[in-house]
Specification:
The protein is of the alpha+beta class. Among the domains are: 235 residues, no CATH class; 95 residues, no CATH class. Helix content is 33%, strand content 16%. The protein has 37 helices and 42 strands. The strands form 11 sheets. Strands 1, 2, 3, 4, 5, 6, 7, 8, 9, 10, 11, 12 and 15 form a 13-stranded mixed beta sheet that branches. Strands 22, 23, 24, 25, 26, 27 and 29 form a 7-stranded mixed beta sheet that branches. It starts with a helix and ends in a 5-residue tail after the last helix.
């Protein structure tokens, strides 16, 4: 009995101990059930933490969205694409129960597979209190759990920049339980999200709808490779940018996976460029005249699209099988099922919610709300018309686009974070980014339907703040609240500021100038000079003007390895382009390796070299990915300055920052709603803001700059139709959305278009249709006349369904006058006259004139470092070309090309000019024809000439023998000599800084040992090089213009129509022929004026050339660019006029010259060599080689210092060498 009791007590004691111990859980962290990976998922990657020194990526960079399904293998967890990239390519023999596997999109290593069970007695099967991970009892594929190595996605994608850089082998993912970047799993129940980051909670989950994985990579510095046809040369890019780290960069990337809910509805919309209207039988429908009816979609309003090819078993991949679906949000919860016919009356709005980023600046929240509200308005109009028939006031229509605060907190596992596919954002990136843009607007677009799932409109605060600071400086300078000493330390910019503050002309004064410009052009197109060039163009034809780009590159590369290549490398080039020789100059070339020397060659970095090509491709690629670079120009801000006058500096800054944020956010949100760039917005005058037409008036004069009243009314701020353009100035688009943007939303989301209340009286509409007539055959100043002399009639409009217009076309009764909008995007940037980034103007002349004015007025902003470290001379030269000089070159080339087809059409119309309401004059004399292009071409050549002519600032003396004002001091305050006298202690001419520009870059020599790292200003050397490139190069980019050869390039250089001006300008620059091209001053008024290259010789009487600061190196570049590229149009006359040869050396190409005055000889006083050149048969044509030899011989006869004579001999020898390379048309 005692024994039994003891046993009972021991048993009870043991039971009690067991209860106290409880379960013992021996499972480890990071287990996850395999059931969580069932179903189909969206996948996207986002970079969210990148150091400033990493130049290859930026915060917010986002991959394309994909659809995937997970496959769990023994060693890998793989996400495969769930569709074939090309539709209908699945093998017909595929078994129906075998899941399709597309390309692998992501892959992670699996550490182990296991079950979580209680330990048990293998003899009796009795379970214990120990819970553990079992990897023995069942095959790996049947086990319930796995442990995944999330540290590295083993699949790279070239749609994501960070995947393209070389990565160090080390990578990891966050496992710290207190780190907010650790694995997150989201579960959705009844429409509400619950997020889990505790590994124990995650391990207990049986399903999930969202996975959030943060990886950290170590990316090696970027390397640029160049292949020259023989060898590949590599250059670490960190060599060229001091702020770029040459060590690996630690970058964090969020991989987001969102489970697709198959029950959600979305209404797809086919969105081809344009298409034929077809009946139920698939046949094209025709109007009563028998013409097939074609209607535009993408051609009308540019949206991103899903574009997917389909394989045809008989024809392979065909255009007719290609799918085009618009990219847009699904704003209806239940469409298309809810629709009754075309009515949405029974449909429910699905709001688009954007969250502010965490720690969003409080001062900008009101602006963010306004931005979202502005895009909400056209969305509400869509709902009003589709659901309520347009009958409701907008304030009674449901909101579609709304803004919400952010609830994220790292202390709890919830909230809206960057890269989270469940949330969309207006995101302020506060951290500076060396590779960062001003704005970026990626959207997650379903690759099968086009539906936007998530989007983020990023604004990069550091860039916006720097932009606002510069904008505030402009405003303060104009208003006189910023002292000149504060503006640029050590420089006297008072004269510049006075010019900036100078008032605009009156409307009457500018109208007279506009009429004079038009008459000058008409006189030119009536001249024999024009008619000769025009006749040659017509005889050669388009085919004769085609140009092989490889030939251009080959001519540029011919300089490699020659003595001239080294001569082109002056101190300025070497200091700017090689980090090893920065501040040292050309004497340090010997210290460089051959591969390093290659980067200094102008064949590498010049206009036709790989470095320039890479820069252009980089810009285009960023544009295509909705990345807006921080570019800046400062003109036309006087009205804004006046509105901010009297405010404190901080208030000015805050106001400008808010407006810059708003315009950038509006642009990026436009992308996230589906809109493509529209670089025609600045040209689309018919859709400018109504205030523009109020200021412009009912009878505007062409070719006029802003008047005083127009500047005060801030007309330039009203001169755009789309926020999706890249404006020329910080205030280009601060007035909010343009008419195009609102119209595009109405069309893309509701298939609504605008119609004029009162159609314009446009007889050409019968011939071309109203859109083509207004956009291609009318100058914008003609528009008010077409609306009965009332410019505001342009803006009286109503909304109609697009289907109504289609029905009218089919019936042959187009009674509705649709409002035409201009649209062009990244592919056509620079390829047509009205499609350009960073331009401004409603016609070609305005574009060129505005570029010229901006370049001249904002020299100090563009060329002075103003304490900024990241200012690079080469980048400056490229920027000057793209922002300013390109417009002069491009508008000229477009005008020449238009002289083919457009002129022919015009001449046909002239046969009945009165009926069509056009001038009965030649195409290039007509305001609705080519007059603007012709005027722009002359303006552009003079603009580029002014850049080349630019002298240096300071004091000048007049050389009576040379009739040239030469610079002798940078001091522009030297006392002027009495008129007619020239004395050593006084100056004959003073040029202020701004009118004169420093020719070479200066470094802060007083700042210490590393002074060469502290750039003070960038020399006009780079501006002159870029301008000469634009003048000499005939290379074009007419993508899409010629339908028979979309990618064809043409040889259209300024020399074609302006051979004498180019010979004087480029040839004169090559031979120090200042009298042929330099700016002018007289010895009485002492005022500098740029030379008008079209002015008659009589206008030069009493004026003297001013030294244009074209150094020996500039002369060499002028000879190189001129001789290498001008004759690419198969006209060798420039090279013939520059040609010099040595008598007896077999180089002569002496024509049968009987006039001895046409032959110039120079006999070298030391070695007796005789140099010969021949003047053109027309004595009025400038022959630079001939003039150089005459000058040299005259110097010898006059006993000029032999050193000066030798400087001319050096030019002669350079020209002879260039002639060996380029003197013939063919190699």
């Amino acid at each position: 009995m005692r024994k039994s009791f003891l046993g009972f007590m021991l048993s009870l004691s043991a039971l009690s101990c067991a209860q106290d111990v409880g379960d013992v859980d021996r499972t480890q962290a990071n287990r996850i059930r395999k059931s969580l990976f069932e179903g189909e998922w969206y996948h996207q990657k986002t970079t969210f933490d990148v150091p400033y020194s990493a130049g290859f990526s930026f915060t917010g960079e986002t991959s394309l969205l994909d659809r995937v399904k997970w496959e769990i293998q023994e060693s890998y967890l793989i996400a495969y694409r769930t569709y074939d990239l090309v539709d209908n390519t699945l093998a017909a023999s595929s078994l129906p129960d075998v899941a399709f596997k597309g390309a692998p999109i992501a892959a992670y290593g699996i550490v182990e597979h296991f079950d979580v069970i209680r330990d048990y007695n293998t003899q009796t099967g009795e379970e214990s209190n120990v819970i553990y991970e079992n990897n023995e009892d069942r095959p790996w594929s049947e086990r319930e759990y796995m442990r995944v190595d999330w540290s590295k996605n083993l699949v790279a994608s070239f749609n994501f920049l960070d995947d393209q850089v070389e990565q160090s082998p080390m990578a990891y993912y966050v496992q710290d339980e207190n780190d907010p970047d650790r694995l997150l799993v989201g579960v959705k129940e009844n429409g509400e999200w619950t997020d889990h980051q505790d590994w124990r909670e995650i391990g207990d989950l049986e399903h999930a709808e969202y996975l959030d994985i943060v990886d950290t990579i170590f990316a090696n510095p970027e390397v640029y490779e160049e292949f020259d046809g023989e060898s590949t040369y590599s250059y670490p890019l960190c060599w060229f940018y001091a702020s770029s780290d040459c060590q690996p960069a630690r970058v964090k990337i969020r991989s987001a996976y969102l489970k697709i809910d198959p029950s959600e509805s979305y209404e797809q919309l086919r969105y081809p460029d344009n298409e034929l209207v077809r009946g139920p039988d698939g046949k094209a429908l025709k109007d009563p005249g028998g013409n097939p009816v074609r209607v535009p979609y993408f051609d009308k309003f540019g949206y991103f699209r899903v574009e997917r090819d389909r394989y045809d078993r008989q024809k392979e991949i065909t255009e007719t099988g290609r799918t085009y679906l618009i990219s847009r949000w699904g704003i209806w919860k239940d469409a298309p099922e809810c629709k009754v016919g075309e009515s949405y009356a029974n449909c429910t709005v699905r709001p688009i919610v954007y969250h502010l980023s965490p720690n969003f600046p409080p001062a900008l929240k009101a602006e963010a709300a306004k931005v979202v509200s502005s895009w909400n308005q056209p969305m509400k109009e869509v709902v009003n018309h589709l659901k309520y028939g347009g009958s409701r006031p907008l304030d009674q229509v449901e909101d579609v686009f709304v803004l919400a605060d952010n609830s994220y907190s790292p202390a709890v596992a919830r909230g809206e974070r960057i890269g989270d596919l469940r949330y969309s954002f207006v995101y302020w990136i506060a951290e500076p980014q060396s590779a960062g843009p001003l704005g970026y607007g990626p959207s997650a677009m379903d690759p099968l339907t086009g539906r936007i799932i998530q989007a983020s409109a990023y604004v990069y605060g550091a860039a916006a703040e720097a932009w606002a600071t510069t904008g505030a400086d402009v405003v303060d300078l104009i208003n006189g609240t910023l002292s000149t000493d504060e503006f640029i330390e050590g420089e006297d910019v008072r004269a510049y500021v006075a010019r900036v503050r100078a008032s605009n002309p009156t409307s009457r004064e500018e109208a007279a100038r506009g009429e004079a410009r038009a008459e000058d052009t008409r006189s030119f197109v009536r001249s024999e000079e024009f008619r000769r060039a025009h006749a040659r163009q017509k005889s050669v034809g388009k085919r004769g003007m085609r140009l092989d780009h490889g030939r251009v590159r080959a001519r540029a590369s011919a300089i490699r390895g020659t003595p001239f290549e080294d001569l082109l490398l002056n101190d300025e080039v070497v200091r700017a382009l090689s980090p090893k020789t920065r501040g040292l100059g050309s004497e340090a070339l010997a210290s460089l390796s051959e591969s390093e020397k290659r980067t200094l060659s102008p064949a590498f970095w010049g206009a036709h070299g790989p470095m320039r090509a890479r820069d252009r491709e980089r810009r285009r690629k960023l544009q295509m990915h909705n990345v807006e670079l921080a570019r800046f120009a400062h003109d036309a801000v006087f009205g804004l300055a006046e509105s901010l006058k009297g405010r404190e500096r901080q208030s000015v800054y805050d106001t400008i920052l808010a407006r810059i944020f708003a315009s950038t956010a509006e642009h990026e949100i436009g992308h996230t709603l589906g809109l493509r760039h529209n670089f025609a917005g600045s040209y689309d005058a018919i859709n400018y803001r109504p205030e523009f037409w109020t200021l412009k008036g009912n009878s505007p004069t062409p070719f006029t700059r802003m008047s005083t009243d127009q500047a005060a009314g801030r007309m330039r701020e009203m001169q755009y139709s789309s926020i999706m353009d890249y404006g020329a100035r910080f205030n280009s688009d601060i007035q909010g959305l343009g008419a195009y943007d609102e119209a595009a939303v109405r069309f893309g989301y509701g298939q609504l278009v605008e119609a004029f209340e009162t159609p314009p009286s446009e007889p050409l509409a019968e011939v071309f249709g109203l859109d083509v007539a207004l956009q291609q055959y009318r100058h914008y100043t003609s528009l008010p006349r077409l609306f009965g002399g009332d410019a505001q009639g342009i803006n009286r409009r109503r909304l109609v369904p697009y289907s109504q217009l289609i029905s009218e076309k089919l019936a042959g009764q187009p009674t509705t006058a649709e409002v035409p909008y201009r649209f062009c995007s990244d592919e056509y940037d620079g390829a047509v006259s009205w499609c350009n980034t960073y331009d401004e103007g409603a016609d070609p002349w305005e574009i060129v004139a505005n570029a010229s004015d901006a370049y001249e007025a904002y020299y100090f902003f563009n060329s002075f470092a103003r304490d900024r470290r990241e200012v690079e001379p080469w980048d400056h030269g490229v920027d000057m070309y793209w922002r300013y000089f390109f417009h002069a070159q491009s508008q000229y080339q477009q005008w020449v090309f238009d002289n083919f087809d457009a002129e022919s059409t015009w001449e046909e119309l002239r046969a009945d000019a009165a009926t069509y309401g056009i001038q009965d004059v030649e195409y290039n004399s007509a305001i609705d024809g080519g007059l603007s292009g012709a005027t722009a071409s002359r303006e552009g050549l003079n603009f580029l000439a002014r850049v080349v002519q630019t002298p240096e600032p300071g004091a000048y003396y007049l050389d009576p023998d040379e009739n040239v004002f030469y610079s002798y001091s940078y001091d522009s305050d030297v006392e002027l000599c009495p008129p007619g006298e020239s004395l050593p202690e006084c100056s004959d001419l003073n040029l202020d800084l701004g009118i004169g520009k420093y020719a070479f870059s200066f470094y802060d020599g007083e700042s210490g040992y590393y002074f060469y790292d502290r750039l003070h200003n960038i020399g006009s050397f780079y501006d002159k090089l870029s301008a000469i490139e634009a003048l000499a190069s005939p290379e074009t980019n007419f993508l899409g213009v010629d339908t028979n050869a979309d990618l064809t390039q043409y040889a259209i250089g300024f020399h074609w129509y302006y051979p004498d001006q180019i010979t004087r300008l480029v040839g004169g620059s090559a031979v120090e022929g200042y009298s042929a091209f330099a700016g002018l001053a007289d010895d009485q008024a002492r005022q500098y004026q740029p030379r008008d290259m079209f002015a008659p010789a009589s206008s030069l009487t009493g004026k003297y050339a001013v030294d244009p600061a074209t150094s020996f190196t500039i002369e060499l570049y002028a000879a190189w660019y001129g001789m290498a590229f001008i004759n690419l149009d198969f006209d060798n006359s420039f090279n013939d006029k520059l040609k010099i040869w040595v008598e007896g050396n077999g180089e002569a190409v002496l024509p049968n010259v009987t006039d001895a005055t046409r032959v110039a000889r120079f006999v070298h006083p030391r070695n007796g060599r005789t140099y010969i050149a021949v003047r053109a048969s027309d004595p009025n044509q400038y022959s630079p080689g001939f003039e150089l030899l005459k000058r040299a011989q005259a110097w010898v006869s006059a006993g000029v210092d032999p050193a000066y004579v030798e400087s001319l001999v050096a030019i002669m020898e350079s020209i002879r060498g260039m002639d060996e390379l380029y003197g013939r048309i063919y190699f």
